[in-house]
């Protein structure tokens, strides 16, 4: 990576503003899944061990520019203190005189967590004065929030105008794995795309088709391709607007595209619905495709055999319902067993890999949903662009 990280700068006795991605799911006022907090620990522990004082900031949910009590960082602070095994001082704002005073008093080893940056409309507007006030708290800015790096907000981009700016270890790992897939993937390079909608992922499909040797399509996304092939897909989720795109992709990609050879259909969008396995052109009127079929699983598996690089984004079925999760979990297991660089992008796909207990057997499970997609599209992420070059 040609971007500077915390390793490349002096941090001892410095106040360091760290943008983390603590946008975690909450349940009944507590952190329901602390994966993102854990993902920041290597950077935070490194900085603490090297004598820095930490001022952490993140957004949480969508408070729309005002203070929303349900979206306070309090539960995050509690969980972080447990994980760091040291006190975390949670402040009630992310700018202002009280925050400035608290920052001035810090000593090496202290940890402050600022309040939700999105409580201020200036965060998303990337307001320069707001960014300057947040930056004034510290002497160095570290961005470790890969998951927010596709947004040019005050805490991801604006503050970099006023402080030396480097990446954290999570940012470094994301850029290393995703960067290698984009810039110099080892071939055969096979991509797998699923999920709900094509329209979110047209850019990714096009850029992947330019690079990979084969593109396997499953999930709701496959339905629109089936429809574009003239199949009647019943009540399956499809996107009318994306039909022309699907048609032209089918034509231009030819045999590079691999679609399911059979599908699981159901008479209702319900785990307990009646199900059948049929060919994609045999969907019963009023039924819907909710998973890839049992013949497609070995078809995909053999398409993946011998691959050196695999990128997977989007579940192959409605994996939230156990009866339609088979394809997604079978794919996760296939990837876990392969001797290839395996990269998982997308929030739901990452959740499926977590659920399957296979995170440790993938090369890299990205913490960034939208950010990983934009990166794979070949876009420059604003939160990455501001990191200083080596
Ligand atoms: P990711 O977050 O990994 O990028 P997406 O958000 O694009 O993935 O898609 C995930 C959603 O796609 C899941 O909620 C899943 O239920 C849904 N999905 C997958 N296959 C189908 C299908 N055949 N019909 C309807 N929804 C589907
Ligand atoms: Mg998703």
Q: Can you walk me through this structure?
A:
The protein is α/β, with parallel strands linked by helices and 390 residues long. 34% of the residues lie in helices and 16% in strands. It is built from 14 helices and 17 strands. It has helices at 35-49, 74-84, 97-104, 121-125, 128-135, 169-183, 202-211, 219-228, 243-253, 296-304, 326-337, 347-355, 370-376, 382-385, and strands spanning 15-19, 26-27, 30-31, 53-57, 89-90, 111-113, 140-143, 165-167, 189-193, 214-217, 257-258, 263-266, 275-278, 288-292, 309-313, 341-345, 364-365. The strands form four sheets. A six-stranded parallel beta sheet has the order 5-6-4-1-7-8. Strands 11-10-9-15-16-17 form a six-stranded parallel beta sheet, sandwiched between helices. It has a three-stranded antiparallel beta sheet with strand order 13-12-14. The chain is elongated, with a radius of gyration of 23 Å. The protein starts with 14 loop residues before the first strand and ends in a 5-residue tail after the last helix. Bound molecules: adenosine-5'-diphosphate and magnesium ion.
Topology:
Layout (H helix, E strand, L loop, with lengths): L14 E5 L6 E2 L2 E2 L3 H15 L3 E5 L16 H11 L4 E2 L6 H8 L6 E3 L7 H5 L2 H8 L4 E4 L21 E3 L1 H15 L5 E5 L8 H10 L2 E4 L1 H10 L14 H11 L3 E2 L4 E4 L8 E4 L9 E5 L3 H9 L4 E5 L12 H12 L3 E5 L1 H9 L8 E2 L4 H7 L5 H4 L5
Parallel strand pairs: 1-4, 1-7, 4-6, 5-6, 7-8, 9-10, 9-15, 10-11, 15-16, 16-17
Antiparallel strand pairs: 2-3, 12-13, 12-14
Helix pairs in contact: 1-2, 8-9, 10-11
The structure holds adenosine-5'-diphosphate and magnesium ion.
């Amino acid at each position: 990576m040609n971007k500077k990280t915390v390793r490349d700068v002096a941090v001892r006795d410095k106040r360091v503003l760290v943008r983390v991605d603590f946008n975690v799911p909450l349940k009944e006022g507590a952190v329901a899944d602390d994966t993102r907090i854990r993902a920041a620990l290597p950077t935070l522990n490194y900085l603490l061990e090297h004598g820095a004082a930490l001022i952490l900031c993140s957004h949480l949910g969508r408070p729309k520019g005002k203070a929303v009590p349900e979206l306070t960082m309090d539960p995050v602070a509690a969980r972080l203190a447990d994980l760091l095994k040291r006190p975390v001082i949670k402040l009630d704002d992310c700018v202002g005189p009280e925050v400035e005073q608290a920052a001035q008093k810090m000593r090496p080893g202290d940890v402050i967590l600022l309040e939700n940056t999105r409580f201020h409309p200036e965060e998303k507007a990337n307001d320069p004065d707001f960014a300057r006030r947040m930056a004034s708290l510290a002497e160095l800015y570290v961005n470790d929030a890969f998951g927010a790096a596709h947004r040019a907000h005050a805490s991801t981009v604006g503050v970099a105008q006023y402080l030396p700016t480097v990446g954290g270890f999570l940012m470094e790992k994301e850029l290393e794995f995703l960067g290698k897939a984009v810039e110099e993937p080892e071939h055969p390079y096979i991509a797998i795309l699923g999920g709900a909608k094509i329209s979110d992922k047209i850019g990714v499909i096009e850029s992947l088709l330019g690079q990979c040797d084969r593109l396997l399509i499953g999930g709701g996304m496959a339905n629109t391709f089936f429809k574009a092939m003239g199949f009647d897909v019943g009540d399956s989720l499809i996107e009318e607007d994306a039909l022309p795109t699907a048609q032209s992709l089918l034509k231009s990609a030819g045999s590079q595209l691999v679609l399911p050879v059979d599908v699981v259909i159901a008479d209702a969008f319900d785990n307990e619905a009646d199900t059948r396995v049929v060919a994609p052109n045999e969907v019963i009127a009023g039924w819907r495709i909710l998973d890839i079929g049992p013949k497609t699983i070995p078809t995909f598996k053999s398409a993946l055999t011998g691959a050196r690089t695999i990128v997977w984004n989007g579940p192959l079925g409605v994996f939230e319902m156990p009866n339609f999760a088979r394809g997604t979990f079978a794919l996760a297991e296939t990837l876990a067993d392969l001797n290839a660089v395996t990269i998982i992008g997308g929030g739901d796909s990452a959740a499926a890999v977590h659920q399957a207990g296979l995170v440790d057997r993938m090369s890299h499970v990205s913490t960034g949903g939208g950010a990983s997609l934009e990166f794979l599209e070949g876009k420059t992420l604003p939160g990455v662009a501001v990191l200083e070059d080596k």
